[in-house]
Design a protein that fits this description.
Helices cover 87% and strands 0% of the residues. It is mainly alpha-helical. The chain folds into three domains: 2-118 and 265-294, no CATH class; 124-250; 296-350, no CATH class.
Length: 350
């Protein structure tokens, strides 16, 4: 247990040598460190899942997810360890505002991929619906590109066929008139194949010749236009197939699907906010614990050590000024100016 506690102290960014002498503070910093550690674990899982949906490769997703989790862990550790308890509550909260905003941003980034995993089945169903809607819209757009040409070809084919049909009907009508003249059921009502019949038969034969010429001419054009129509349909099918290959399966489409689900379902909307608030609480907990807790022995000892370094710095600076003053009476104006410039540069660097 001691090793685990010391590990969590390390995660909290605390000075372990000081904490060993401040036994009452050990549990507090162990809890803070555990929260930071598990936040890093959650960040690793979230980033790994999100990157797997992008790269579709377990190795890349695991490696990148681990690096992301390590970065979040280090950032959380820095945010918490940089907060100092100085007894001025107002100043502490003001200085913690940027850290809280950073913690909120991190929690949102971590929570979104985990939400996608939690609602994976619902998101997959919504993505499938989005794919169908998107395909329908794109297919309609593709078909619209070809509709004018198709309608024109179909109209031209229908016109050519109607010309043959009309000519055929006219021939059949003339043949029927000639036949009725021959059998006495029409025309002159005389049953014979006389001059009137031959005239009517000649008219029917003339139309037959015209019909054959028309069919020969129009059938060639119809066959040509039908080939063009078939090629047009093939080209449209190929365009539609290309569209179907580019389905919406990326991370952005899943986030959009989750957003649509939160708008459709009140239950998912409530769950979405519960998860978001949970991660907000987890991510901001170390900072808030550090802010609302009273100053403890650890803070006093840490302040004393830091103040010791600060005091030593100003003591060395005072000694340097004293030496310079003693030597200034023996230095030329040029040497005094050089020393003062060096001192000024030293102060600016520190």
């Amino acid at each position: 247990m001691e090793r685990i506690k010391h590990f969590f102290w390390l995660c909290a960014g605390a000075n372990r040598s000081i904490l060993r002498n401040c036994t009452s503070e050990g549990s507090k910093y162990a809890g803070i460190g555990a929260t930071i550690f598990f936040t890093g674990i959650f960040a690793t899982i979230a980033a790994g899942y999100a990157l797997f949906t992008v790269f579709d490769n377990y190795l890349i997703a695991a490696a990148a997810g681990f690096l992301w989790g390590l970065m979040i862990f280090n950032l959380d550790r820095f945010i918490v360890s940089s907060i100092r308890k100085n007894g001025n509550t107002k100043q502490e909260w003001i200085s913690a505002i940027p850290r809280l905003l950073m913690a909120i941003l991190i929690s949102i980034v971590i929570a979104k991929p985990l939400e996608l995993k939690i609602f994976e089945k619902e998101v997959e169903a919504e993505v499938a619906l989005m794919i169908q809607e998107d395909l329908g819209n794109k297919e309609n757009a593709v078909k619209q590109r070809f509709v004018d040409t198709r309608n024109r070809l179909q109209t031209e084919i229908a016109t050519l066929k109607n010309e043959i049909f009309d000519k055929t009907a006219k021939r059949d009508a003339l043949r029927k008139i000639a036949q009725m003249e021959a059998d006495g059921t029409g025309g002159s009502k005389k049953r014979n194949a006389g001059p009137i019949y031959r005239i009517k038969k000649a008219d029917a034969d003339q139309i037959e010749v015209e019909l054959q010429e028309l069919m020969s001419r129009n059938n060639i054009q119809i066959a040509e236009k039908e080939l063009r129509l078939k090629a047009l349909n093939t080209k449209q099918s190929q365009a539609v197939d290309e569209i179907r290959k580019s389905e919406l399966t990326g991370l952005a489409s899943r986030i959009e699907a989750l957003d649509r689900l939160t708008g459709k379902s009140e239950g998912i909307w409530i769950a979405h906010w519960f998860i978001m608030l949970l991660f907000l609480a987890v991510e901001t907990a170390p900072v808030l614990v550090k802010l609302i807790s009273q100053r403890g022995p650890y803070d006093y000892v840490l302040k004393r050590e830091e103040y010791g370094f600060e005091a030593a710095y100003y003591e060395d600076l005072a000694k340097m000024n004293s030496i310079i003053k003693k030597r200034s009476s023996k230095l030329t104006d040029e040497e005094i100016s050089y020393v003062q410039n060096r001192l000024q540069l030293s102060l600016e660097k520190t």
